[in-house]
Amino acid sequence: MAAPSVRPSVRPSVHQRGEPPLRNPDVTDADLVRQSLDGDGDAFGVLVDRYGLAARRVARAVLGPGDDADDAVQDGMIAAWRALERFDAARSFRPWLMRIVANASLDMLRRRKVRRAVAVPETVVSGGIPPDRAAEGSLVRDRLKGALMELPERQRVAVVLFDAEGYSHAEIAGILGVPEGTVRSYVFHARRALRVALSDFKEGE
Amino acid sequence: MTEFMSFDSEQDKELGARLQAMLDAGDNELFLARMRDAVRQAPRETPWDVLTRWAPAGLVAAVAAALLFWFTLGPTAGPDPATQLMASAPARMEIAPNQPEADVLVTSVLEGR
């Protein structure tokens, strides 16, 4: 009797097929989601590589620098992986993932506010820009960081997604669960505050 | 930085680049490796997990619906038993084999027996 053929239970992973694992434009998000649903954990890893850093920037915009932001991204990534069956393949993966990560970040911020009676961003606690810091690039970053962290968290998310990550108003509206006009207002007010914070440096340019 | 009108629809690439630079942590490869590992070790959600997650909420909703049903429809579903008994008392006395006296009948109706 012939020995039964042994077939792998899952398709060969993206890595095994010899394709570049990171940000390969030939492999669409939809393909990677399908492969992930077939049990290919490496395919979801490619999605993590594609959107992990953007997700981290959004989390850091909400929570500030530190471990909380990374933990929120991890929570969001795991939640997305676990709930992948419920993802509507007809829609775009990127805003779906970002919505999960943004919600994880906002949830963590709420928990942190409960833990601490008053949540004050580290940048504000530090009392602004240290006078002995000479490098203007560092000053600009500090000023920008301070101004960003003083904004309401949804304005932070909106301006980072719009200007830094290139999301549309409609996509951000879906991510935050608010009307598109509200997102436009968030971006407008956030930009105005950030421009005021950076105006000193702009004049010197 | 790009000058913008109110509710501008265009991306401000200069501000975006500054925000990206400010929010980037620097240890990107390490971070991505950590995320990949975390996902690899996480089990996929099963239908049972979904059911378990929604079970408490479903139970609360069921209890709330039952209470609502009871308070809105329960007491008015039928006439009060005492009222029903009083209403039917004269009729029962009328059809009883031994007819009561008229004053007994009137008294029992008036006294609500």
Helix percentage range of chain B: 55-70%
Residues in β-strands, percent of chain B: under 5%
Low-confidence stretches of chain A: 1-21, 122-131
For the report, how would you describe the main beta sheet of chain B?
none
- Can you give the mean pLDDT of chain A? 81
Distance between the termini of chain A: 81 Å
Q: What is the assembly state of the chains in this entry? A: heterodimer
Number of strands of chain A: 0
Stretches of chain B where pLDDT is under 50 for at least 5 consecutive residues are none
> Which percent bin holds the helix content of chain A?
55-70%
Helix/strand order of chain A: HHHHHHHHH
Q: Give the count of helical stretches of chain B.
A: 5
Q: What is the approximate shape of chain A? A: globular
Q: What is the N-to-C succession of helices and strands of chain B? A: HHHHH
Write a concise synopsis of the structure shown.
The complex is a heterodimer of chains A (205) and B (113). With 205 residues, chain A is mainly α.
List strands and helices in order, with pairings:
The complex is a heterodimer of chains A (205) and B (113).
Chain A: H1 29-37, H2 41-63, H3 67-82, H4 93-115, H5 122-125, H6 136-150, H7 153-164, H8 169-176, H9 180-204
Chain B: H1 13-23, H2 28-41, H3 47-73, H4 81-95, H5 102-111
Write up this protein:
The complex is a heterodimer of chains A (205) and B (113). Chain A has 205 residues and is mostly helical. In chain A, 66% of the residues lie in helices and 0% in strands. In chain A, helix 3 crosses helix 4. The longest helix of chain A has 25 residues. Chain A starts with 28 loop residues before the first helix and ends with a helix. The mean pLDDT of chain B is 76. The longest helix of chain B is centred in the middle third of the chain and has 27 residues. Chain B contains five helices and no strands. Chain B is rod-shaped, with a radius of gyration of 38 Å. By secondary structure, chain B is mostly helical. Chain B starts with 12 loop residues before the first helix and ends with a helix. The chains are: A mainly alpha (205), B mainly alpha (113). At the A-B interface, helix 2, helix 3, helix 6, helix 7 and helix 9 of A face helix 1 and helix 2 of B.
